[in-house]
Amino acid sequence: MQSKLQQGAFNAINKCLEVSPTDRVVIITDLESKHIGDALKLEVEKLSVELAYFTIEDFVSRPAKELPQQLVAAIKNFAPTVSIYAADGKEGELPTFRRPLTRMLMRELNCKHAHMIGITTALMEDGLNQDYDQIYKVTHNVASAVKDATKITVTCPYGTNLVTHFDPTNLKWVLDDGKIPYGHMHNLPSGEVYTSPVTSNGTYVAWVLGDHFASKVGVLEHPLTVVIVDGYITNVSVDSAAPAFYQDLVQEFTDYISEYENGKRLGEFGIGTLVGLTGFVGNLLQDEKFPGSHIAFGHPYPHETGQTWDSESHIDIIAKDVTITFEVNGEIQTLMRNGVFESKYLN
Q1: 289 in Cβ contact with 127 (< 8 Å)
Q2: What are the protein's UniProt keywords (predicted)?
């Protein structure tokens, strides 16, 4: 019987990427995540398909200030149809390294791209060991429910009260249902639906932060309170009784969203559908899929959602124990209560 880690790798290769005999697979890993890269490599080798395996540190020191041309050439010469990024994400690498890499893989090479930033053994054994047939079903049920919504309200016992407006005609919902098509990128573990909103107003209480913050601070003991007005962050705060570390975190988060144009602008509204999880683990890659609400500021995935603006930065924040209601044609319906989907979306 294979380990849970190896079973997670099996699911990634066979259920999510559905690697076929004609595919050419490239795995990009780093020294920190090499054991996971190796597990993925083993599953690809079992299929007897063409495989290329690259370790980031063989091409550039971290954090990478640019996408090295030697790595670009090696990938293009191999001409993959399936690509996997199974590596950590270092501070500052998103605009300089990871985004140029994923754009090349998806847009130039038309790969099915599995993005596993910050992947750990725990995530391979947890999120990638869930029932992906059930995740597929729930994801499609949720997407069918909200795809025509013009307004969604998110509340929680800790102070979240956010009203977000949508344009279902021009801004589409994207399904991360566990199956990755060619020319697209999904994070693994999978399980979410997301879109880019028109505007949003209210307060959002965040227990997990994205990008490099997730690996740095994990699940917050003192959540950040983010105020949003007309779709832009206007204030970030934490309980005044929180330790100095959290006051510094507020400043670091504020500096991050202030660095690039539209960094404070709400770019993504997501609903996690990875049923089977039991709680946050402090890793965005999985926690944003936890059944509930997450939002992100900056890059709105315009090539997928149809949004007309863009940003070099992208940072998610995640609430917990949320109640989500949505409005379609003037009728308000409940999607989940206190972090639990209504039963009809699970069947």
Answers
A1: yes
A2: Aminopeptidase, Hydrolase, Metal-binding, Protease
Quick one: CA dihedral 302, 306, 310, 314, positive or negative? negative
Strands 331-337 and 340-341: antiparallel
Domains detected in the chain:
4-127 (3.40.1830.10), 130-345 (no CATH)
User: 158-206, pLDDT tens digit by residue?
Assistant: 999 999 999 999 999 999 999 999 999 999 999 999 999 999 999 999 9
Helix H or strand E segment including 225:
strand 224-229
Structural tokens at position 260: 């690039």
Q: Structure pTM?
A: 0.88
Q: Tell me the per-residue pLDDT of 306-339, one tens digit each, with 9 for 90 and over.
A: 999 999 999 999 999 999 999 999 999 999 999 9
Residue labelled with tokens 């690509």: 83
CA distances in angstroms from 246 to 165, 209, 221, 283, listed in the order given: 31, 13, 9, 18
Q: Which residues contact 148 (CB under 8 A, 6 or more apart)?
A: 168, 328, 329
